Structure formats: C-alpha cells, structure tokens
DNA sequence: ACGGCATCGGGATACGGTTCCCGAGCCGAC
DNA sequence: GTCGGCTCGGGAACCGTATCCCGATGCCGT
C-alpha cells in the first residue's frame, strides 16, 4: 500500500512530475509556472500549482535545470587564503555583485599551490561556471603566463571566462580580463609622501621578491626616490613574506645593522603592524621617533595606534568590477561566434594615499 | 603541421559522445574510464580514451553527473559577512575540510538579512547540497527557532543536513547539528583574570543586547563577579554593535560619566581595538592606566600594541568539526531510512584565555 | 574439443527539468 | 456561418552522464 502518490511518504526527492500529478496538470505547465517565463498560464492552473508546491515544499533541481539549458549562472572565486583581509574584501565585492544579478558564487582556496589551482580551475570548468575569478598576486614566471593562457582558452572554449584580479595580466591575444589597481603609482605616492616629509633614510619592506605586487610596489618607491633625487640604498631593502612576523623581524634586524633609518615603508598594512611592534619593543615611539606607512588600507590600518598612513586600494570595488566585466562579456557572447577584437581586456583602478597619524617629519628636521 | 584537426569545430560543448566517437568506442566506455569505477576496461581502450580526452580538453559535465546520481558532494557556507575575521576562519575550516574530502564549497552572504537567509537556504536546497553550514551569532527570537526548525526539516527531507555554527542550538527533536564553543566559560575566565588582578571597576562592552553570543559573554562575566563577591554595576555596561566604533564611543562616553573604571572587558577583539584607541586619545596608557581584554583571538589581537589578552576561540577547528559532523551523518544515512535517536547533535568546543600584555593590576594596588 | 567462466564493450534507460510543436477551445470579424 | 487568430495545455524530444543488462570474445581445464 505504500504507493508514492500519497505524497506524505515521498520523503526523498519531490520531482516536478509529482507536483504535476498532484495538481492535475502536466509537468510542462508546472515548469512554466515556476520558471517565470512569460508563457501564458491560466490563473486557475497557476494557483493550483503554487498551492501544491507549497504543500510539498518543492524546489526545482538545479542540476536538471542547468542540464536543460536554463540554470543559474555561477561565478567561481579562486582565492589563496580566505583569511587575508584584502582578498576577503575582493571576494565580498564579487559575491555582492553576483548576488545582485542572481548569480551564485562558488569559492575554492588554492593555498598558494599551483597544482591545486589547476585542479580547481578544472573542477570549475566541470561545473560549467559562467566565470572564474582568480584572486591575488601571483609569481610571474614564464610558466605562469603559459598556464594562465591555457586556462583562459579552455574556459573560453567552454563558454566561460577568466578574470584575473590583482595579478599580472596576460600577454598576447588571450581571452581573459584583468582587473588591477595602480600598484606602482600608489607606492610612488606613498614613498613621495615620506620623502616630502623630509625622510631620506627609509627602510623598505616590499615583501617577497618574486611576487608581482611586491615588485610593483618596490618599483614605485624607487621611482619616487629618483624623482626626489635621493639615492636609493639597496641595503635598506629587506624582503620577506607578507606577514607581521616579517615586519617584526626585518625591523629588528635593521635596528642592529642600519639603525639610521627614520621611516619604514611597509609593503602591506599587516607588515606595518609587525614593524610597529618591533619599534615599540625597541623603545622607539611611532611616529615621534620613526614614521611608518602601510599599503592596502584594510580595517587594521585604522585600528592600530597610531592610525596608519597607507595606500587605499579599492579591493571591494575591484571585485565588483571583475564580476561586471564577466557578466558583460557573457551577455555580449550571444551575438556571434566570431571573436571581437576586444578579446582581452585590462581594467585599472586608481589608488590614493590615506593620510592618518603614523608619519611625521624626521626628528632632526623638527 | 600542428593542426588541431577536427577539434577546432567543436567550439562549445565537448560531450562524452564526441570523445567516444573520436576514440572509436562507446560513451559507456568513456564514462567508465573517467569515473574511476572499478569496472574492467582494457588498456587499449583506456589509453585511447585518455588520449582523446587530452586532445579535446574534455571535462565531464558536473550537472549531468549529479543528475545521473554520481556527482561531487557540495557544502554550502552561509555567512553574514565575509570580511569578519572570525567568520572567515570558520569558513576556512569548513572549506579546508571539504576540500580534503573532495567536496565543493558554495558560499553565500546573508548580510544579517533573514529574508536573504531564507532565500539562500532554498537556493542551496535546489543545488542539492550535501550540507548547509550556517555561521554566526543569531538573534534568538522565538521566530528564529521556528525558522531554523523548518530549514532543518526541509533539508533533512531532501537528504541534506543543517549545521549551525556559533549559533543557539535548536530545541526539540530537530534534525540539525550545532557546533558551538564554550562562550560563557570563556567570558567567565576572562573576567576572572581581571578580577584576580585586582580590578573591581570594570567597564563591560558585551556587544548588542539581542545577539546570542553577546548575552552569553555578559552572563559569564556576571557569574565571575558573583564568584569573586564583587558587585556587578550595571552602570558600567554599555551595549552596541560589534565594531571598533562602538568600542571607541563607549569608552569615550564612560570616560565622562563613570571615569573610575580601571579595566575594559570588551566583547570582541575589534571592540577592544576601538576602546584602546579611545583611551589613547584621552591620554591614558594601556595597560599602565587601564587594562583591556578582548574576545576571539583573531590575528588583530596580537597585532595591537600592547598585544591583547583575550579569549581564544577555536574558529577554524569549529569549521572543520562542522564539516566532519555533516559528512559523518551523510555516510550514516545510507544505512536505513529509519531515523536514529541521535537526530540532533550538539558539539561544544573549549575556549581558553590567552595572556598577553594588555592587563596589569590596577594602579592603586601597585 | 568443448563447456564454462571471467573479461570487457555496447545499447538502452533513467536522472529531472525546459522547451518546441501541435492541437483544442474560444472569440470576434467578415 | 465560417474562418482566422489568440490563448493555453499537453506530449515528446532533448540536455550529458552513469549504470544496468546482455552479448561477444578469449582462455582455461578436463
């Protein structure tokens, strides 16, 4: 007697046919009522279906829907590390913009592992995502260019699209969009801020040597030194990973070896926080004895004491722009199979210095 | 001569049949080669298929796969705010554990909007996710209980499972798992730490009155006061949202109205950061003049100067536990349709005080 | 030499929707 | 009165993959 028609025992899957049967209509009608197409459906059928849907607590199977051609567009966010504030803000921007359009967001973390990145891109390709957004500075090997170009073409062939955010853009005619910020100019402005305050001996903590963002920040600083006619002392540059331990250790070492610096130009707000602690531990005051600047303008910057003068990077905006770019391209794709000339695109957002309390003129000038 | 041959005209979707045809085998064989079932396939067929798969850069369609019964389990992470460090760490734990098992992670942000939360749970139900993990403190209305119970039952009926992390658990026989930490004990210990250092006039900034976590933290503190025989002055309690502006404003106001406090018991590390700034702005030193404690032990706590004494909450571990619970339950579900008695489950993780540099005995005792 | 078993490939079907196409009913207009 | 057009419902053909079931082949033992 345990027939399926009684509904109450339909514990597992409720299908569209169950609904149709119970409402006394065809599956096609149920689909039309639910899929909000503008196919005309009589009010009686509509209300009958809706009632049954509520009764049975039915939801459509997204996989079947996708398979049949309809289906919610999904954006994949691939990120090195969810706990990084900067990345989290980009992700927020992407997710927010996605939600606004009714898109779904899948996230995967790569943990800086290229193998895992590869695996994830393929996984996302399987999912048939509308776009893949790759976040975070990358190591700019030749191999990187090759790998990304392959990703881009694979995704493109599958009707998807690759968006690189805060990463080196791709050379050549590769179907990918890059969303970037003016990294070098930000560093230029930040270093200029210190130089124009009178600092000459500036300890630079750009970050890891191979990371694209670190390179850009160091270049910007170097250009500022040139512009101000101040010799750039490579002995005052110390490399290391983007974390506070690096900031701490680098300052501690510099205090022993080249203690005449009057300011610290940190590659990141987090690095600046570490540097600040090391200075305090050595009995130095910030900014009275030593000035500090950061980069990123994450919430931490204004939570430190003194509040950190830093470079504002519009991370959340970048995320939004990234998704918009992907969505636009998707819309445009419907036109013709023939590729447009604007296959690859490079969007650059501005940065600016946020002046807070961590910079003062060097002591001897006061 | 490096032509891609026929491949070039298969621009859009490459299906399993395309692969089969090109390899001169049936679709069934291709499926068997790729799905790593232990169905016996001859080496010649296998290698032929693999070759074509590489040539065509074929990936299986995950939607079709899911529809056919196989398919990657997916966990949905529903989170108020990606930029909150605590939530980000939970999410990291969930995501990491998911990845480890080959699961996928979908995220959605609710932005504290119950409507959006509802919509998201339904969306995830459509996706046929294996589990939904709901993060973050919630407002503990009666309606909350009802709503969550409905979610839990809906998901359960669809073969999925609801996991509540850092939220009030559900009353009654609701098929949901709760992963929690010992919030009240943490607060008890933290307040006890201040009391045993000699503080008696302690400014409490528990957070918003209605939030479940804030309530628990205040209760713990109150119990500590009782245990130490110290009267609990409600005039020294100031409510507000969990952000640094609240910490700043509350301390500023307290400095005018009840300036005799010697310590601040903040409901959150971020709140503590705001409080610390307000004290500094008023010319007070931390911890020499006023002690401060936090709660959460996010990275910020050790980036502040002085480093913050706080309560460590095992956020990432909670995330891992949450996913494990969901996975275990899923495995167990295959056994019998009949429900076990352990339909709802409540896991509680421990907390502990991390002593750093932001607490000293009050001045008059030194 | 022959039956039987293990190995392996292929056709058919199911998964749960969407949508094309057709047809029935109804109304208004000539 | 008839015909055309419009409204709306249903049957059926997909979407791409996994898997059941059956048949073909080859090898072994007796």
Q: Strand share of the residues of chain A?
A: 5-15%
Oligomer classification: homodimer
Helix percent band of chain A: 40-55%
Helix count from the secondary structure assignment of chain A: 13
Distance between the termini of chain A: 94 Å
- Overall shape of chain A: elongated
Largest interface: A-B, 57 and 57 residues
Average pLDDT value of chain A?
Answer: 90
Instruction: State the secondary-structure class of chain A.
Output: alpha/beta
Number of strands of chain A: 12
Question: Can you give a write-up of this model?
Answer:
2 copies of one chain form a homodimer. Chain A is of the alpha/beta class. The first copy, chain A, has helices at 16-23, 27-34, 43-56, 62-67, 85-100, 114-126, 142-157, 183-196, 212-227, 244-257, 269-281, 299-303, 315-333; strands at residues 74-79, 104-109, 131-135, 162-165, 176-181, 202-207, 237-239, 263-266, 291-293, 310-312, 345-349, 352-354. A 6-stranded parallel beta sheet of chain A has the order 2-1-3-4-5-11, with helices on both faces. In chain A, strands 7-6-8-9 form a 4-stranded parallel beta sheet, with helices on both faces. In chain A, strands 10-12 form a two-stranded antiparallel ribbon. The first copy, chain A, is elongated and about 90 Å long. The model of chain A is unreliable at 1-10 and 334-341 (pLDDT under 50). At the A-B interface, helix 4, helix 5, strand 2, helix 6 and helix 11 of A face helix 4, helix 5, strand 2, helix 6 and helix 11 of B. The first copy, chain A, binds a DNA duplex (30 and 30 nucleotides) through residues 13, 15-17, 25-32, 35, 37, 39-42, 45, 60-61, 63-71.
